[in-house]
Amino acid sequence: MSNPQKYTQGILKKATWNSPEQEVTPEQVFNDRRAIVKALGLGAIGASLPGHVQAGIFDLFGKKDAQPSFITTDLTFKQNSRYTTEETLTPYEKVSRHNNFYEFGTAKHEPANNARKFKVDPWKLVIEGEVDHPITLDLDDLTQLIALEERTYRLRCVEAWSMVVPWVGFPLAALLKKAGVKTSATHVAFETLFDPEQMPGQKNRLMGGGIHYPYVEGLTIEEAMNDLSFMAVGLYGKTLPPQNGAPIRLVVPWKYGFKSIKSIVRIRVMDKQPPTSWNQLASHEYGFYANVNPKVSHPRWSQASERRITEGGLFSATRIPTQMFNGYGEYVSDLYKGMNLREYY
Amino acid sequence: MRLSPRSVLLLKVVFHFIGLVPIAYLLLLVLNDQAGGDPVQFIIHYTGMGTINAVVATLLISPLAKQLKLAALMQTRRLVGLYAFVYGLLHIAAFVSFDLLFAWSFLLEEIIKRPYIMVGTAGFVILLLLAVTSPKFMMRKLGRRWQKLHNAIYLLAILAPVHFYWSVKSEIIEPSIYIGVFIFLLGYRAVTRGWFAKKPHPKAVNSTTNASPSPNHASRSAGTSGR
């Protein structure tokens, strides 16, 4: 992390994907593929056979428990009564198995399988830039430095599906205040871990969906200091599983999901707008702000409604109208007063 | 080489197997809750890939029959093509039922607002028309027009990969590979059937303009190599 070259890859400059060594497919990718095939459950078929033959053919696919899964631990926290909802929560099994985390593969079910062995200990989160005193947090600090609270937020993906998720964490503002934001600050940049050994999507372009890693995101300083901006370390009362952004992620519920960057290693307070990954990739489709807005369509699809992923089986989903700012207008609409949201999408 | 009727039958059984097993596998995955936390996108993507693979397989048959000198292979083409329709039907059914949840008015809006869905819909209409006119009696009834209609598969060979490429957020490598495959399949025909070959104009023999790849040229050559 202290390697200065790595430092310039992310929120400051793009560099890694230009290097020619990224283009060769290392032997390890081949080995990883085998691990993936195993993780997809093909190994489990064989393993589960003897004991379950009598239980019938459908059991051939079950028994994921045979795979070592990521360990999550209980967290201590208070409920924040301001951020609760009457809406039905999306069950943990769906929140943790339907993920966009291209570092672990582009298909929704891949991160849960490919991130099983993700190491979060040791972890280092650096807060630096336009701050009075840069700080570095380790894994324990993430859950102990600031009192944890639970908030239930709606999550609206830019792909027009949504969930309702109980997160555990602390306000981003509380963290930034620990470092002391200078008056020169205008924006905050975030960076995901860059570790191709652990993240097959960063190693192999076919798996990583063509994103320029490490993944970077950003907010204006006003957005970052807004009480809604949340640093989540947990989900359903336990520490985050890797596919949901372990050990620490951003949650900005009035913006499309891709703004809520996962597995953060660096937060840099800046005096200019930082680059953001999806915006770099397709600026006409993904803006810097990316506020949920049913009136502004994605160039290729409508954002007027969303499919809510909720309890129950295949037929249980509902299609509901998308709300402006994902229903959080009372908290954030002031941030965008007088702004043309069609232009600043 | 000649294939015995028995071998052709065996080949057909194998192709049915290849077509049906992935559907059974998908069903097992879904019933066992192994199609991800939200199986909707999984099913739509899976059946979409099935459709595009079946279209590739259909378009591979006549080049293979020619290269391997196995004319009897052509007898399996309709069956493979019909699987493209079956997967396409499942793909659209999954989209309309599981994703749109039968919001028909919304469907209309979606078709307009999402150009890739319009392209996909056009592709499905082609598959539907070809499937409906695939029985032998329809072939007899339509006569020469049958081949003309079925040349629409070449349009599908363009629409299908465009729909795929257009639908993804950033993972364009796989759809790009498919575009390459379809260009190869169409290019092979263009070369072997002389779609772009210079042909003397029936009246003005001096004319040097290239013959356009009109359906007529395609139909004539496809007609001879087709059966």
UniProtKB/TrEMBL annotation, chain A:
Residue ranges occupied by any Oxidoreductase molybdopterin-binding domain in the UniProt entry: 118-278
InterPro entries: MsrP, OxRdtase_Mopterin-bd_dom, OxRdtase_Mopterin-bd_sf
Example GO molecular function: oxidoreductase activity, acting on a sulfur group of donors, quinone or similar compound as acceptor
Chain sites annotated for binding Mo-molybdopterin: N99, Y102, E103, C157, T192, N244, R249, S260, I261, K262
Cofactor note: Binds 1 Mo-molybdopterin (Mo-MPT) cofactor per subunit.
Transmembrane domains' residue ranges: none
Reactions listed under catalytic activity: L-methionyl-[protein] + a quinone + H2O = L-methionyl-(R)-S-oxide-[protein] + a quinol; L-methionyl-[protein] + a quinone + H2O = L-methionyl-(S)-S-oxide-[protein] + a quinol
Cofactor: Mo-molybdopterin
Superkingdom of source: Bacteria
Function: Part of the MsrPQ system that repairs oxidized periplasmic proteins containing methionine sulfoxide residues (Met-O), using respiratory chain electrons. Thus protects these proteins from oxidative-stress damage caused by reactive species of oxygen and chlorine generated by the host defense mechanisms. MsrPQ is essential for the maintenance of envelope integrity under bleach stress, rescuing a wide series of structurally unrelated periplasmic proteins from methionine oxidation.
UniProt record similarity statement: Belongs to the MsrP family.
Name this protein carries in UniProt: Protein-methionine-sulfoxide reductase catalytic subunit MsrP
Annotated organism of origin: Shewanella gelidii
Chain's gene name: yedY
From TrEMBL, chain B:
PANTHER family named among the record's database cross-references: PROTEIN-METHIONINE-SULFOXIDE REDUCTASE HEME-BINDING SUBUNIT MSRQ
Protein name per Swiss-Prot or TrEMBL: Protein-methionine-sulfoxide reductase heme-binding subunit MsrQ
Biased composition (Polar residues): 205-227
Family note: Belongs to the MsrQ family.
NCBIfam families on file: PRK05419.1-2
Lipid bilayer topology: Multi-pass membrane protein
Binding note for cofactor: Binds 1 heme b (iron(II)-protoporphyrin IX) group per subunit. Binds 1 FMN per subunit.
Stretches for region Disordered: 201-227
Molecular function (Gene Ontology), one example: electron transfer activity
GO BP field: protein repair
UniProt cofactor(s): heme b; FMN
Function, as annotated: Part of the MsrPQ system that repairs oxidized periplasmic proteins containing methionine sulfoxide residues (Met-O), using respiratory chain electrons. Thus protects these proteins from oxidative-stress damage caused by reactive species of oxygen and chlorine generated by the host defense mechanisms. MsrPQ is essential for the maintenance of envelope integrity under bleach stress, rescuing a wide series of structurally unrelated periplasmic proteins from methionine oxidation.
Any one GO cellular component localisation term in the record: plasma membrane
Natural source organism: Shewanella gelidii
InterPro entries in the record: Fe3_Rdtase_TM_dom, MsrQ-like
